[in-house]
Amino acid sequence: MSVPALVAAVNTGHIDGARAAKSLFHLLVNDANDANMAAIVAADGIPSLIGLLRHGGVKGKQHAAATIALLVKHNDANQVAIAEADGIVPLIALLRGGPSSSKDAKHFAAAALLFLAQNNNTDVAAAIAAAGGVAPLARFARIGKGDATVFATRALVLVRAIPAEQVEAVRVAAERKRQAAAARAAAARAEAERINTRKAARDARRLLRLQALGVRCLQALGIDEHMPAPKDYTCPITATGEAMIDPVVDALGITYERAAIERWLKDHNTSPLSMKKLPDKRLVPNFALWSIIEDWEKKEHEKYMALATA
Q1: Burial 200-229 (b: 16+ CB within 10 A, else e)
Q2: pLDDT band for position 210 (50/70/90)?
Q3: Do 3-162 and 203-309 agree at the fold level?
Q4: 102: Cα within 13 Å, side-chain hemisphere
Q5: In whole angstroms, what separates CA 132 from the centre of its chain?
Q6: Is 218 helix (H, G, I), strand (E, B) or coil?
Q7: Is 20 exposed, middle or buried (0-12, 13-18, 19+ CB in 10 A)?
Q8: Between the CA of residue 232 and those of 67, 243, 247, 298, what are the distances in Å?
Q9: Which residues are CB-contacts of 205 (< 8 A; sequence separation ≥ 6)?
């Protein structure tokens, strides 16, 4: 199975995710270490492994921690990437223990934390301290066995060597990042609610038209209760003939229904119309068209309802 396929399997979690993470681990311990490491990172393996580390079962967390340990060993870029992807907290949680923390999982968590903190990467070591890693490392250094104790002890030395001022600065930055993420999540929920409200309003108006005129009467008058929209108001991907609910503009300036273009961009980096490569995958809300469609729908609805009362 290819590396991208294994990373995709990691995202399934539980049994399949654990097996995929184990396969990635074995890819990193063979002779093609560097090539496989680059392939895993290119396939967005780091956030996938962190997701398994957070939400996987016992074996999933164990194999995720083991693979992360190899990804960050002697690799400064991956160390920073793991820290920026909030991978430190779940590693500390795994080391701290619980129902989903096996002995081997704690072993690999301790190794990962050591490899994250070494190579003079003081910012990452400070992040471990700021995330509350000192106490779990100290405890595991006392009660662990063999290499696991060595990993925890060496990591503890590196983390404790970080000045308190640096740890506090990292903690404050992490808190700001958390608050910003929470604000983005709240904005996304508000946007989803706005879209749902608009869709509900459209459905309610459609129901009123059906109730007022009846399907047969609409057909006799040559009226489509779905209210076919002008071509400029419709999505070129879905081609349903209905006005877009959440129009967005891609990097080439073409407007689509958000859900449709997002599905396309999951597997493509090209325009669905011209097949030209997109400079990037950013999507910008087309508020101007949204407002025009909203006004058009209200006027069309009023026109159709006037027919019912004429």
Answers
A1: eebeebeeebeeebeeeebeeeebeeebeb
A2: low
A3: no
A4: 15
A5: 25
A6: helix
A7: buried
A8: 49, 9, 11, 17
A9: 297, 301
Q: Are 11 and 50 in contact (CB under 8 A)?
A: no
Q: Are 215 and 231 in contact (CB under 8 A)?
A: no
Average pLDDT value over all residues in the chain: 85
Element (H, E) at 220: helix 215-220
CATH match of 203-309 with 3.30.40.10 = yes
Sheet holding 255-257, edge to edge: 255-257, 247-249, 284-285
Long-range contacts of 287-291 (CB under 8 A, 24+ apart): 289/232, 289/233, 289/244, 289/247, 289/255, 290/244, 290/246, 290/247
> What is the Rg, in whole angstroms, of the alpha carbon atoms belonging to the chain?
27
Q: If one looks up domain 3-162 in CATH, what number appears? A: 1.25.10.10
Beta bridge partners of 243: 234
Taken in order 33, 107, 111, 6, is the CA torsion positive or negative?
A: positive
- Which amino acid type is present at position 263? R
263-292 exposure pattern, b = at least 16 Cβ within 10 A, e = fewer: ebbeeeeebbeeeeebeeeebeebeebbeb
CA distance 164 to 130: 9
* CA distance linking residue 245 with residue 229, whole number of Å: 12
The half-sphere exposure of 260 on its side-chain side, counting CA atoms within 13 A, is 21
The two three-digit tokens of residue 144, written as one number: 């662990």
Residue range 11-65, pLDDT digits in tens = 876 678 899 999 999 988 875 568 889 999 999 999 999 999 988 888 999 999 9
- CA 230/CA 169 separation, integer angstroms: 55
**Residue-range domain boundaries for the chain:** 3-162, 203-309
How does DSSP assign 239-291, residue by residue? --SSBPSSEEE-TTS-EEEHHHHHHHHHH-SB-TTT-PBPS----EE-HHHHH
